[in-house]
Amino acid sequence: MNTRAIFISLATAALPGLLISLSVRNAAAQSGAAPSRQAGAAQASEQPGRSETVLTAADLQRIEELIAQLSSDKFATREEAVAGLIEFGERAIPMLAAAAETPDPEVRLRIRILLSRLSNSDFESTVAAFVSGASDEMEGWDYARRMIGDSKASRELFVEAARQHRDLMAEMDKGPGPRMVAANKAADLVVRRMMLEFLPPERGDAVALLLTCGDRSAPIPPGVERVIVRIMNSQVTSLTLKDAMLAPVYQKLVGFWMRRASVSYQPQAMFFALQHRIPEAVELARDVVAEFIATGEDLIGTDTVDPKYSESLEQALLVIAKYGDASDLTRLEPLTVDDRRMPVGVDQPDDATDVIRVHVRDIAVAVSIKLLDGDLRDAGYINPRQHNTVVFFTASLGFPGDGDELRSKPAKYLADLISKQ
Question: Which domain of life is it from (predicted)?
């Protein structure tokens, strides 16, 4: 696959978990749960100094009705129930908590979201003090600050993560184990919102999960990575990277994942880095090149590079061309004499008598020349097509036939550039 291919696999990445059929609770279950909910509400109303939580008999009945409506098969009814419970505020929490063990997965999800939203009424005042810089008192901030620094942008992004995933933020400072367990739960919540509510992921979801990738001592759970990949291909990521204030911090967060992307996602990660100007991906690209060289011909192929390796190598070389520096010349040197063919689509002129092929060394020499600010046409490439996003199209770097004599010109041009350094 060449650089013009569209990596639609991002949009169709498999989601964790199973599709759960949605069921409506029957009347008997509703009536059986009512006494315990009302008892919980009554206990709350009797607490001294908490007059604002007092509920009348009519209030109790109304909350009970609204909770029952959360399982309605009508979307409008469910949304009206959510709005009504939000109006009751903290007073609805005891009855919601009592109903949280319902067997209906959709209702459990809605109740969990509502409880998160209604709990801790002073959260927004805490947020206001935090965003203004007057306070650092937010769970998880010590860990996040070590990862993304302390700035207006980092605080705003952290708050969005905290609003979406307060349970995860509470585990951030407790070490890799608890953090990863909470990250899996957060990823599952995002998936359930997408599957059951048809809600797109939000920026807070992305920030929360990407933060967990910053600690290299802990592996990235597969389920978490699948959700991250999905978010990378969503509108929320595109919009955030266009925000002049937030983009630098968000790029750093994305870089945490890119440096550690699993093998199956590496080509997509590096192509994304080219599209959205994320230089942190150069570390991943260097690792890919080093692994390719170390793997050797036995696994990769003696004449043609195995396609399962070529895609990652192609993207890695382009990332280095865009974000690397002269220190990469030594790293690329073994590839500048690698004569194996790359299985990429090539530009074939209509009047061509010899098949044009792209070899590993064709791309590696072009990247090295680019790092030294050389000119590919002057170097002897026949029809190099450069591009602002992907640097150049690898399909345009080939030579006809054996091309040994033609390939020697770029090699000599590169040697001359290096000798002048």
Answer: Bacteria
Instruction: Identify any residues that bridge with 357 across adjacent strands, giving them in sequence order.
Output: 399
Whether the Cβ atoms of residue 199 and residue 193 lie closer than 8 Å to each other: yes
Q: Identify the residue whose tokens are 């390719």.
A: 292
Cα dihedral angle (29, 186, 78, 50), rounded to 10 degrees? 80
Contact 382, 334 (CB under 8 A): no
For 98-176, strand residue ranges (E) read none
Q: What is the pLDDT of residue 116?
A: 74
pTM beyond 0.85: the answer is no
Which residue in this structure is represented by tokens 């036939």? 401
Backbone angles phi, psi at 96, to 5 degrees: -65, -45
| CA distances from residue 8 to 43, 233, 267, 272, 285 in whole angstroms, order as listed | 54, 9, 12, 12, 21
96 vs 209, residue with greater confidence? 209
CA neighbor of 278 nearest in space, from 314, 311, 247, 312: 247
Listed residue (224, 255, 223) closest to 241, CA to CA: 255
Residue 50's pLDDT band (boundaries 50, 70, 90)? very low
106: which 2 tokens? 């959709």
Other C-beta atoms closer than 10 Å to the C-beta of 49 total: 6
Q: What is the DSSP string of 249-266?
A: HHHHHHHHHHTT--GGGH
What distance in Å separates the CA atoms of residue 210 and residue 148, rounded to the nearest whole number?
11
Residues 6+ away with beta carbon under 8 Å from 273:
258, 279, 280, 281, 319, 323
The pairing of beta strand 386-387 with beta strand 391-392: antiparallel
Please spell the DSSP secondary structure of 276-331, one letter per residue.
Answer: HT-GGGHHHHHHHHHHHHHH-HHHH-SSB--HHHHHHHHHHHHHHHHH--TTHHHH
Per domain, the residue ranges of the chain are: 27-118, 123-260, 286-419
Listed residue (372, 369, 370, 348) closest to 358, CA to CA? 348
